Amino acid sequence: MKSLHEMTKDDLKEIKMIVFDVDGVIVPRGTKIKQIGNTTTLETKIIESKEIEQIKQLSKKGFLINISSGRGLYMLQEMFRKVLPFVVLTYENGSATWHKGKIYQHINSFEYLNDIFPKLKQIINKKIKGFEPKEFIITIHCTEKIPEIEEIVSKDPNLYTVWNGEAYDVGVKNQQTKALGLRQTMKIFKLKKKNVMAMGDNYNDTELLKKSGISVSADKTRVNGSFFVPLEGQFLPADNLMQKILSLLD
Ligand SMILES: [Mg+2]
C-alpha cells in the first residue's frame, strides 16, 4: 500500500467515478442509537460544509460521486441533502442505488431474512443497543460482540454477519455486499473497473475495494487498498482524498 501522498495525476487518468463509504470516511465513526420499546432514537450526522464544497467541485470536474454505505436511504438522503443533485447513493451494503429520485434495486433479500429477523429480535442482552431501521439488511447495534447473534446467523448457510466494531450487519452471503452495488452502478453508468476509485475503512468495504481500479484504505488495520490514509489524521479520510485529487487537477 502506498501513502496517499504518492498519488499522481497519472493515477487519475482513467477515473470517472469516485466511490466513498460514509462512516469513518466522510463522517467520523460511531452511530448513536437508542431503542426503548417501540421508540428508536437515531442521530443524524452532519457533513462538514467543506466536504460539501469538495463534492461539488469534483462533480464540476466531471467525476461521478457514488456514496456507498451500509446505512439506509432515508439517512443518506438526509446527510447528503445539500448535494443530492451531484451524488449517486448506494445503500445497505450494495442492496440498491438511488439516482435523482430513481431507485434501482439490486437484490431481493426478503425470503432470506424473513425467518431470521424474529429470532434475532428475541435475543435479550443488555449489550444490544437497537436495530437500525433498514429495508434489505439487518443491522444490530451492540456495545460489543454478542456470540449468540453469530451462532443464530451461522446456522443459516445463506447468511453472513459482519461486525464493524459497533454493529452487526446480517445479509445474503456472497451476494449482498458493496461489490454488488458497485457492479450494478457501473452498469447504469457504463463504466469499467479502471474507471473507478473507491475509499472505505471497514470490513464491509472489502469487496468494494477489491473490485475498484484504484482503492484507498482509510484503515489499513481492517482493509487493504492501492493507497491508504490515516483514520485519525488531521482531516477526515474523504477530505484528505478530495484535497489530493483537486490539487492534482489544478
Ligand atoms: Mg465505514
**Would you tell me which CATH topology of the largest domain applies?**
Rossmann fold
The percentage helix is 25-40%
**CATH architecture identity of the largest domain:** 3-Layer(aba) Sandwich
How much is the average pLDDT?
A: 96
- Secondary structure: number of strands: 15
Question: Looking at the structure, what is the overall shape?
Answer: globular
The tally of structural domains comes to 2
Order of helices and strands: EHEEEHEHEEEHHEEHEEHEHEEH
Reported for the largest beta sheet, the result is: 9 strands, mixed
Low-pLDDT runs of 5+ residues are none
Measure the end-to-end span: 25 Å
> In order across it, which strands form the biggest sheet?
1-15-14-13-2-5-6-7-8
